[in-house]
Amino acid sequence: MPKIEINPGIAPFPKPIVLVGAMVNNRPNFNTIAWFNRLNGRPNIWGVAMGKKKYTLEGIRQSRKFSINFPTVDIVDRVDFCGIYSGREVDKSETFDVFFGELGDVPMVKECPVTAECSVYEIVELPSTSLLLGEVKHAYVDEHIITDGTPDLRKINPFVFVRPGDQYWALGKSVGNAWSIGKTLKE
Length: 187
Ligand SMILES: Cc1cc2nc3c(=O)[nH]c(=O)nc-3n(C[C@H](O)[C@H](O)[C@H](O)COP(=O)(O)O)c2cc1C
Hints:
The chain is mainly beta. The protein is 10% helix and 41% strand.
């Protein structure tokens, strides 16, 4: 199969989307983020690449805390809203029902079945983004998404972001068990 070169700006795709929350000037604010990932196991560190001018970043620099919220299909319009408008121009504090956890002043989204609150471990300054390394201090899930003690994807209905095309896609079906299906190739 021939390969052709394309604009590397597309990769990686598809990406889960998260809402990153922080208090900014005493109000909850949420930023829609595609550039995030889990980066370390112990301690549990997640990375978020945030544009240097984002309003949410101002709050995070001050409080040194932020939340990560995993949205579902039912709130995709509100997630997009938070990715279009900056808290600098639009008050996003009432876009979602907000709750607070153990860290006290880290706003989390009630409508998201999985959320976590982080303290800043380090901020790495890249040319156009600040890479926030957040140590996850506490994570929360809705009771109703639990099956046999763990979060159950079939009860969540998450979505991913796809570029090129800039669309949100729901997930399809499972195609194999990790650390398992590959073993069939050993012989
Ligand atoms: C699908 C999507 C993904 C985005 N991913 C990122 C991202 O990874 N990092 C980032 O800084 N901004 C990202 N943005 C843009 C911000 O969400 C947007 O600039 C937002 O208005 C910033 O809000 P704030 O200024 O209130 O913090 C994304 C927007 C959308 C719609």
